[in-house]
Amino acid sequence: MKKLYPITLVVSLAIGLPTLPTLQLTSLAQEAAPTATPSVWKRFTSETGKFSVLMPGEVKEQAERELHLFEVERTQEEVRYSVAYEDFAVAIYQTTAELEDAFAGLRRTIAQENGKILAESRMTLKGYPGIEFKLTFPKEGSTGRARVFIAKQRVYTLVVKTNRERNLTRSVDGFFQSFQILD
Fold this sequence. Notes:
Layout: H1 26-29, E1 41-46, E2 51-56, E3 60-64, E4 67-74, E5 79-87, H2 96-112, E6 116-125, E7 128-137, E8 142-151, E9 154-162, H3 165-178, E10 180-181
Antiparallel strand pairs: 1-2, 2-10, 3-4, 4-5, 5-9, 6-7, 7-8, 8-9
């Protein structure tokens, strides 16, 4: 089986404040009405990658052979959000044993990147098998979460890596939950 690419990416977002209710007091009515801070989160869609996801800023795209990477780094929040996909010549797995081998390859890749798996859980998205890892990178002092979905001949990898996960839980969850595979 072909080696899967390293999982080492991350980013965060600033959530806009809600609009305040309009007050009916005459002295305040003449002041400018408060407005909502625009959210930095926008839906990003890759037509060729056949996916969409919410991203917190301008998406930078890189491609190297079959690997396509889309990421947003938010340095002020010390986080990077990324989605990557890679196409293979044949379906990644035909049997449960081959699927388990693919997931074992992901675990090896994380170890090679000096990551430590704290927890993992299985999931599906539109019937495609997936796995989520909660990670720590002790040498870097950072944490991360990664989700990997295997959709026939394509592998999707979503990663968030940060030094400030406690402050970003809502943003990280929203990023992962917004991911959609478009058929």
